[in-house]
Amino acid sequence: MDDRDGNKITQKAHQVLEQHYRRQAAAEAIYHANRLDWQRGVVEWVEVFREALKLSCYEQCRELLEIRPDLLIQDDFQLGRISQCEGNHFAQLARYAEAQQEYREAIEAYNQTLSRDPDYIKAHNNMGVALKSLADSQANLSLHNEAQQNYRLAIESYNQALLRAPDYTDAHNNKGIALRKLADLQTNPSQCNEAQQNYQQAIESFNQATALSPDDIAAHNNKGNALQSLAILQANLSQYNEAKQSYQQAIESCNQALSRAPDYINAHNSKGIALRGLADLQANLSQHDEAQQHYQQAIEAYNQALSCAPDYIYALNNEGVALKNLGNLQVALGQQQAARNNWQLALGLFARVLQLAPNDAIAQRQKDQVQALLDGLDDEGESVS
Fold first, then answer.
1. How far, CA to CA in Å, does 107 sit from each of 102, 104, 375?
2. What is the pLDDT of residues 252-269, one digit of tens each?
3. pLDDT confidence of 4, banded at 50, 70, 90?
4. Dihedral of the CA atoms 307, 312, 315, 318 (nearest 10)?
5. Does domain 316-385 have CATH number 3.40.1000?
6. Among residues 138, 134, 132, 136, which one has the least CA distance to residue 152?
């Protein structure tokens, strides 16, 4: 029972305790807010959790998860939002089995909501987000068929929302993300035409979102992500001029987001990815000066993200890859000491990721690769610093 309907003494105690914990412990304050008004407490829990996860404040996330079993939740839609948050937390820490369980619970909660109200557009949108997140975790585990199926289901959920609300910016943006992720799984030779079509559809979805809301920083950033993914495919198809153009457009989209929100860590990270991709392409084309310049700019973009969120796993991982690739180029140019320095920096970044997320297979693989590169330099008789 919601404590608003209960004992007046208990209600007063929760009021006093909420005010007390407001000064020192957000999780405890939210617990007492929830006991006074279940919905207010749940909404605040979701908002605080999302912000903590965005900034990689994992200790605060753990504190919120500790009170999660004691929260009063009397609505399936809100239950779905909480399960999504939990799934995102586990996914960011590479705990994919737990993440998938939470995403499935969110999907079931949204199904229950829509069985009672088929026209609830936010439930259609959130259903799409949960399905897309489930697909992401499946893709990370190389379950590509299952992932493609759930990306398509996510796109259909967004279409259901847009059927009822054509100007719903979030649904346009989220549909674009799912289309891009689906295309990422279709870059093999047998599906590359489908991949290009889905990248273009994703870019169009983001254009529709920014046309409706020019200051939507997420849509600008996501357009940048789709463009850099398209550039990777174009480079693999030897469409080098088109790839360079797509990378430049991706960087510009990220800059559009950053011009509106200079501390937007996702855009700094995305800009770094596009710059690193452009540098990789230029290195392969023996455009060495341009490649080194763009690797350095990528590293600076990741550092901008990390200045806002020092434990941001994605930027730590991505900066490590940029440093590794820069080192590879420097070795090819006979700059062994510079390469060693950059590989050692990369090694430290991957080690930091593994402290935060011990199950991160990508960071472990990259760390092993960099260590092998360093060992290879030593075996060649280079002086050890």
1. 9, 5, 47
2. 999 999 999 999 999 999
3. very low
4. 150
5. no
6. 132
